[in-house]
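Sample A.
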Amino acid sequence: MTKIIYFGKNEETLKRLQYLPGQIVRQAMNYLEVEQMCTAEPKVNFIVLFEQKTQNEDLTAISYLHHKTPKAYLILLIDTLSKEEITSYHNAGIDDTLSACPTIEELHKKIQFVENHESQLINDVVMKKKLLTFRIPLWKRMFDIFFSLFALIILSPVFIITAIAIYIESPGKVWYSSKRVGANYKIFNFLKFRSMYIGADKRLKEFNQLNQYANEANEETENKELSVENMMTLDMNGEFLVDDNSIISESDFLKQKQTETENAFVKLENDPRITKVGRFIRKYSIDELPQLINILKGDMSVVGNRPLPLYEAEKLTHDDSIDRFIAPAGLTGLWQVEKRGDAGKLSAEERKQLDIKYGQTYSMKLDFKILLKTLTAFIQKENV
């Protein structure tokens, strides 16, 4: 169920809102009243029509409502926006825009759109604002400490030999550190032995056609940066959404979001950026050994969901994939042992579903089962 709050004083707009079919619109004179109305009915989703005033005043109110009313979908009523204003309003928490004096037809169409896509729009807003509070169980943490300490001592000769081999072939740092996202969307420095040439991460876009998870049916679309005024000229129905630096139609937005979610993972086949030593240590999973330090520090667990790069994790914030982040990041996990020998043909959707399954069902029994399977899947058959 969705209810509408009008935060403004425009008499003409207020009159039009009264004629919306099947809708009862309540008016709020300040953002504190908006908060009170929303918190009074916590199980109800709200559409807040936010009338523009001065920018500083607007940004304060929007930022406050963004944090205090997680189930409110904020629509800014405005005619024109500069690129800087678009960024400011978006960062403050505005979710959508509509013309300053919308017609009854525009209002009805916008409200219908939000209601029809409630699970994708309003629930998406809720999940992005939701603070996850996962805590690793004591049994799991104690095992992680014991396992990582023991493994680091036993494997110290392997660490030394690998570091020397990497440096001889490709001089530079033998460790590779990147920002990854683990449980609770926590960002940490993820450690690996460097298996690629220096600067390889900056060349990812050059090899995008090798991405195994890319959607072959995806058609390239060009997003043009338009002002609200120009968009209104092209789309009299007022269907547009504010992004960081652009405005796009609602239909294009939903298609783009779906495509991004489907192609969230990046995995290259026969990656030309990998060194000869890198191929060897990847084949035998030696490149993963520095993550024992991450485990000892508490960033990761021995068993869990693989921590994702930032560009992948930000595409998995919807309510249908958020459960993968209520489990610890892991050195090995469910999808690795169930699909590792399948010639690298694991789809993004399969991988996501296995991550979600682990997040919802992990236990001591399942962890030991995964560890035993990891031993048999230690040698990768695929060259990825």
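Sample B, a different protein:
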Amino acid sequence: MNPICELPGAALAVERGRFPDPLFDPAPDAPGERLAVLAGGCFWCTEAVFRELDGVLGVTSGYSGGDGASANYEAVCTGRTDHAEAISIRYDPARISYGQLLKVFFAVAHDPTQVDRQGNDRGRQYRSAIFHADPAQREVAAAYIRQLDDAKAFVAPIATQLLPLEAFHEAEAYHQNYAALHPTQPYIAAVAAPKVAKLRQQFGDWLRSDSPKDGGLA
């Protein structure tokens, strides 16, 4: 992670009203928890955002897109693997839908118009990607991207890749829940904390009941 402050992307639309709810967001055929794997830059930051949401049962930082042999921080940081820094989100679709997770992903968690970077974090490991677990997830994601394009939610084109989820590799233990454990670390204070603050401001009614409404990271 680059400790220099990540400036908000000029193409990012920050008002919640400019982000429509997904029009195509069907409920799963059967009850039970589901998994979403998303990549939007530094996993410390995306993990911190999604941990706040009601219906999210757990968030794990890791790597997706490459093979198991290269699924380690030292290798991924070179930018020469096929991995992206990603998070695996366990969620209850009866409380939060896949489409709603994607709405937060696009509206708050990252700038999907940036290619192989997020702010000062540069490299293909920071690319925007949705790793769909099945055709239904891919259909919801593709439909929502088209919907955002039609709504002109961003000035620049959405660069998010839609990729089949072949594997998710859990990152090293010290990366897990990093933002909450290191709230004063310069990168966390400059990059992760403002994203969480924006989530709380724009999606306050989507937060867990025990999530701080202001102040520290959950």
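Observation for Sample B: Helices lie at 43-50, 73-76, 98-109, 135-151, 178-181, 186-202.
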